[in-house]
Amino acid sequence: MASTADIRNGLVINFNNDLFQIIEFLHVKPGKGNAFVRTKLKSLTSGKVVDNTFSSGATITPVRVERREFQYLYKDEAGFNFMDNESFEQISIPEKLVDAADLMKEGIVVEVLMNAENDTPLTCELPASVELEVVYAEPGVKGDTANNPRKAVEVETGARIMVPMFIEQGEKIRIKTATYEYMERVK
Question: Of 26, 77, 79, 93, which has the fewest CB atoms closer than 10 Å, so is most exposed?
Fold first, then answer.
């Protein structure tokens, strides 16, 4: 058992018979009344994000998890298939447990959060940014340069990204996986 003093970003807890990962938290000590902790929790089974307030000193049940690197191999009807880079063991993860799945191309190394007690995958996280090739881009309209114009392009994984007008088909771009934002061109 732990208390609210042990709360930190990334901690996985057992709450309301489900596993939740703490995305953000804030310790609040009002001038009047007891202190409390506001948290934003993401369900590792459904992906739903909920807000919850714990009173200060309340007990929480942390879950022991491990972060392991896996390489993405392919997708089939069971989900996404990954290979452990150390043991070469293969696992399959359902599509709902993979964040930003449409930015994932074969061979990319991802981090899989595993429940250490029963060795089951909980969630799959891509790196902070990925480099992908633009396979389709509409031509930019000449003279349309006011107010930082953007256009939609399609990258090699099928995702649609908003990019500046100068990006052309065949170029490699870096994309921020958390927000699907264009970052820069890659040489």
Answer: 77
According to DSSP, the β-strands at 181-186 and 49-55 are unpaired
As beta bridge partners, residue 110 has 70
Last residue of a domain, one of 104, 125, 146: 125
| Residues 57 and 74 both lie in one domain | no
Are both 86 and 69 inside the same structural domain? yes
Q: Give the CA-trace dihedral at 94, 97, 101, 104, to 10 degrees.
A: -80
Chunk the chain into consecutive blocks of 10 residues (it has 187) and report each block's average pLDDT, rounded to whole numbers.
88 91 92 92 86 92 92 92 91 86 92 88 90 89 71 93 91 93 92
Confidence (pLDDT) at 147: 73
Are 9 and 26 found together in one domain?
yes
pLDDT of residue 160: 94
Q: How is residue 94 written in tokens?
A: 């359902």
Give yes or no for a contact between 69 and 85, defined as CB atoms under 8 angstroms apart.
yes
Sheet holding 49-55, edge to edge: 2-3, 59-62, 12-15, 18-28, 36-43, 49-55
pLDDT at 146: 67
28: containing domain: 2-62
CA pair distance 89, 69, nearest whole angstrom:
12
> Residue 27: which CATH number?
2.30.30.30
